[in-house]
Amino acid sequence: MNLAAVVIVALAAVLIGAFGLRLSRTTSDFYVASRTVTPLWNASAIGGEYLSGASFLGIAGLILTHGADMLWLPVGWTGGYLVLLVLVSAPLRRSGAYTLPDFAESRLESMAVRRTASVLVVLIGWLYLMPQFQSAGLVLQTITGAPVWVGGLVVALVVAVNVLSGGMRSITFVQAFQYWLKLTALAVPVLFLLLAWRQDGAPELHDPAWTQPLTGDGEYGLYSTYSLILATFLGTMGLPHVLVRFYTNPDGRAARRTTLVVLSLLGAFYLMPGIYGWLGRLYAPGLEPPDTVVLTLPSLMVGGTAGDLLTALVTGGAFAAFLSTSSGLTVSVAGVIAQDLLKGGVRAFRVATLLAVAVPLGLALQARALSIADVVGLAFAVAASSFCPLLVLGIWWRRLTSAGALAGLFVGGGLACAAVLAQITGGPYGGLVGALVSQPAAWTVPIAFLVMVVVSLLTPGRIPKGVARTMVRLHTPENLALDRGDWRPRD
Amino acid sequence: MNRPEHRRVSVTSPRTAAARRRRFPATREIDEQTRVGELYMRSLLRTQFRLAMFVCTLLACVVGGLPLLFLLLPELRELRLLGIPLPWLLLAGLIYPALVGGAWLYVRQAERNERHFADLVERR
Q1: What number is the ipTM of this complex?
Q2: Contact call for A212 and B87, based on CB within 8 A
């Protein structure tokens, strides 16, 4: 039955994707669906794309293991949209760029900054994709006993077929569908679990080291908490698959309203992982691997046919999570590879899609298995240390220069990537080094901002010539008849 | 001004629409990047940036303050409301509607700022 759920979700994704096929014909369709998607569709699609396996399975697993301190993870993954809303959403949509490298090029008028941004998009995308494939393998192994590489391969294949057949437009439909599927797949079982818990006499959890914040994980708990908050709140705006969605809004005002709807949708979803973590600690403490707690609880607590049905539902939801996030990331990474590393056009996009999927699949089979939410958290840290300063300073500070942006991207992104590499290949490290490496954002983000500002102030001659016009384009409402320059993203 | 002196001159109060009329609409000042246009743009950016910073500061106080509060007042960690430990009630529940509420207020104010700017530059 669980396998049937996986097959149904995969088939549905492919069919809905094919349904959008006849609508996508030009290159522009492939990248941003011609910007005709309505705000509710768009918000559902952002939610569907954003809620990855890390949100669906990983958070509950981390809460089960580490307790209350991990509640900050979903808070940050939601609150990041508030920061994105106030600092970035409308100006970014008004910039008219398709991708982050587009934004970098149009704002700083420099191909060097564009290429650096492209490389970072690809790195963040691969870092985010790798744990999705790993977890898909883990889930399929848990429910069918299949070897661990099978699940990752299945997800990679479905995503590749989907992206190749429809591009962005079909992805928007698929993603919107996936949000509601994931919400249902987590909400219905949680009701049954809570009923079972009440019938069980509503047992209490007496484990203060787990239920109370700042009590576990050694002496650097406060540092880790703050670093996690910084990475998640500032990293959201730098995620390539999230940003590409903002270009599908008709204007800056719609971009803001879409973000508001996204916040509500995510807030509703993130009420649930905490409950799974709590019940998991009560009924399945010491579960191995903890990432499977969401899949295990229904059969453990409800049992019988109802338990089997609920397990099938959460399994389907988990695969929806892997598929949706991987599709969104693949579109973004492939778009950047096609535009900046290949010649561009639909054919290049197809080659790039295969590249975008194959590399993280290979990495997933090689790298050491970390918790999915931990690896995704590292991707947030890299985004917060590179694209966050680029976007915030680029949108609000006229004196940002191409040299400053380049230096900041190199130093901030480089340091964060080095920490990630150390964490994934080596580790776990102990003591202060361990805390600094596993949660790098608290030191890499300030360094990135500092480098960008200082180098910009030292190179005043390299302020882009068109900065005044660019500021008009970024900040004025579209209904005003103003000269916004003639920059257009390349097809 | 250097017309022959015998021409009649109409003397009007400056408080009429005719006196306030400018030669160009402000959109043209912005397009031609005059100093007046620059001033309009800077005022828009400053208003929107102040609003953004206000929301970010508020957010930083809440999310930055909570861990500190739990650190300095450990008894808060044990406190229970409605049978739920306070940290869980806040972090797994109430913080989400608070974020949505903050976002809603921001969107309203940001759109208001933009309408104000549009009124300002389109007034003739």
Answers
A1: 0.88
A2: yes
Q: Match 């490298």 to its residue by tokens.
A: A101
| Contact criterion met (CB below 8 Å) for A254 and A479 | no
- Prior bond to A250 cis, omega within 30? no
pLDDT in tens, A120-153: 999 999 999 998 898 888 888 888 888 888 888 9
Residue at token pair 């969401």: A294
Partner B contacted by A251 (CB < 8 A): no
Peptide bond preceding B4: is omega within 30 degrees of 0, i.e. cis?
no
Q: What is the pTM of this model?
A: 0.88
User: Is the CB of residue A189 less than 8 Å from the CB of residue A182?
Assistant: no
Distance CA B6, CA A31 (A): 70
Determine the distance in angstroms separating the CA of A9 from the nearest CA of chain B, rounded to an integer.
29
Distance, CA of A470 to chain centre: 28
Name the DSSP class of A302.
I
Residue numbers of A between 381 and 400 with CB closer than 8 Å to B: 396
Cβ atoms of residues A280 and A60 within 8 Å: yes
Q: How far apart are CA A223 and CA A471, in angstroms?
A: 37
User: If 0-12 CB within 10 Å is exposed, 13-18 middle and 19+ buried, where does residue A258 land?
Assistant: buried
The reply to whether residue A226 touches residue B31, judged by beta carbons under 8 angstroms, is no
